[in-house]
Amino acid sequence: MRPSSLEVLDLTLPVVSDPELETLIETRVGQLCRQLSSTSSPSGGSRGELGVRFFEKRRRKASGLGGWLTGTGRSEEEICWEVWKLKITLTTPRTEAERMTLLRAEAPALLRTAMTVVKIVNRDKDRA
To answer: Rounded CA gap, 128 and 123, in Å?
Structure first.
């Protein structure tokens, strides 16, 4: 896996190229969009919650001699060390001008949220 970046709404966000992960994200985003599309609020927008979880791989030791004798004494486990629940509102602009207005209005909020997540995750990355 190689880290790279992606430009979204005038933001440069870090990404990791992993086909399995991309498929999982696309599936879950599609589910969220379908759910939000079916439950719109009186104001015309749909609200939902997006969970972002951060994992790390740690080596796990097996107990006893069984693992040592069979060569299966160590394996990796994924440990979730940070969970963010982000409240989102999906809006559907009626015109291109309305879309651009919404984009200009919401891009700063997205930037603040993304930078808050990055700042806190980087601050806590050396946790015990």
So the answer is: 12
The CA-atom distances, in angstroms, between 34 and each of 6, 23, 84, 99, 110 are 24, 17, 21, 20, 21
pTM (two decimals): 0.55
Per the DSSP assignment, residues forming a β-bridge with 5 are: 14
- Tens digits of residue pLDDT in 70-104: 555 557 888 888 888 888 877 778 899 998 998 88
| Cα atoms in the Cβ-side hemisphere of radius 13 Å centred on 30 | 6
- What residues are paired with 87 via a beta bridge? 49
Question: Looking at the chain, which runs of residues are DSSP E strands?
Answer: 3-8, 11-16, 46-61, 74-90
**C-alpha angle 84-89-107 in degrees, rounded to nearest 5:** 80
